[in-house]
Amino acid sequence: MLSVTNVNIYYRRKRVIHDLNFTIQPGEIVGLIGPNGAGKTTIMKTLLGLTRASGEVKLAGEEVTPSHHAALQRVGALIEAPAIYPFLTGKENLKLYAQDPAACDSLVQRLGMTAYINRPAKDYSVGMKQKLGIALALLDQPQLVILDEPMNGLDIEATILVRKLIHDYARQGTAFLISSHVLSELQKIMTKVLILNYGTLIVNAPVASFSPTTSARSRLAVTAPKLARQLMEEAGLLLGADSGDLVVATAKLKPVEELLLAHQVTITALTPAEPSFEQRIVSILTEKRGERDENQS
Amino acid sequence: MKEQLSREGYKFYHQRLPWLMLPVLFVLMIALGIAMGRSYSRLLVMTCYDSSAIIMLLLVIVGSTSYSTEFQNRTILATLYHAPGRAVVFWAKFLVLLSYNCLLHLAALVFTVLLNLVPIVNARVAWLQVYQYGQPLVVNMLATTGVDLVTSGLILSLLCLMSCLINSNSVVIAVNAILVFMGSGFSANLLNAGLTTVVRWNPFNMLNLTNQYYNYATYHLTTHLTNGQLLGGTLAYLLLFLFLGNWAFAKKHF
User: Fold this and answer.
1) Residue B60 sits in which domain range?
2) Cα B71–B76–B79 angle (5° rounding)?
3) Full-model pTM
4) B243 lies in a domain?
5) Model pLDDT for residues B70-127, shown as the tens digit of each residue
6) Which residue of chain B has the CA closest to A65?
7) What architecture does CATH give domain A2-210?
8) ipTM of predicted complex
9) Running DSSP on this structure, what letter comes out for residue A89?
10) Is B80 touching A (CB cutoff 8 A)?
């Protein structure tokens, strides 16, 4: 549905985005991840025809350029900050772009904004404004929704609500491109990951590839850590220790269990010892940064 | 274009500032009427109580705010991607401001009729009495309003250009106010310095169009142009500033 081919973006003669290529299919929730200044917002603006770029951005087969936005009729976005006119009420802000008033009312209700939707937007709190910004992006069942830090300023209940709404829209075929620094939150919703570093796309992969079904290493918490450690070292079963926990090969769990039981040591917790999603992203970025520094020196 | 015009109109209609300017216009017209005194009653009616200068000021404030509100609230991004293209946004904004300009002139006409019906500021004058250009006063008043629509159109085009070049509301208002209110003085100084044949076509000289229309004898000595030449020059600069404004808006980095 959205295809980005060989896109290069320049800011005053300096290339800020290099040879960008990716696609987004209907119903996909794509997370755009990268450190500050990596070019996430610039890419989002380019997809919305707000920035000049070489290459090709096509939505439903139609090209998007700064002078041609026809394909964006069914695109919603929340970029940088909610696009809200402070002198209008929340309802009036929505009315400005809404094609279907009934669907708009239902969206207001689902986002729990009914109580204040007729108040001037200038009186809204940060969270209220953010919800209104999200509602503006979701108006009229868009084909594609682009959200830049959508959970900014939202409380936990609102975060869960927005997450659920995103899932519901995606089930109905809406595609999402979401950038967020809250990786744990992004991990809960996205189906694909794009990692951006210094203007270059370094990872374009399904999120499933980041969460292996079976972990090669397991982390143990036991009742007598010192004794357990000594026993396992002697038996050659210990791979390492991490914050008081013992790390062993998952394949060797049975002999470990038998050894500990024989010495009346009980296992109190057993968890996969793989790095978390956040740790993986950080390690990828650190690795790429190192390669870049090496190439520059 | 129709949809964008309707959105721009909707936003403009819901702002408080443009509507607050109507009573301000009325009060300032009365103040100028009192300042000029009863001996200029016919001139006051012809110029709608010198509303030209007041409308210029109001347009600078409202027009500059109309653009900078979008830039400062970052609503310009949504406005742009919802529109078929940047040019559509630029022209829709200009047309809405132009309509507001017409509304201010219409309000000035209505206030003038009211002030002539209830002569608290000046002496009541007969509408059909022949005044300037061998025409009845009412025709003089309507013609001056028509001419001022062109002059204020030039102000609007300059305002749109400057607003696309500068993001800050206060800076845009200050720069526009300086250009609009000091421009004709600057032009007069340039003309006094010489090179009249070329310098008389400078854009600031065109700001004298309305003034020259109702006071030809005085202003022609300053502008060195006839009414027709001033009108032609004003329209040419109006189109040039609009073209440049549209170009600046298309190139602007958001």
Assistant:
1) 2-180
2) 160
3) 0.81
4) no
5) 888 889 888 988 888 888 999 999 999 999 999 999 999 999 999 888 878 777 888 8
6) B85
7) 3-Layer(aba) Sandwich (3.40)
8) 0.80
9) B
10) yes
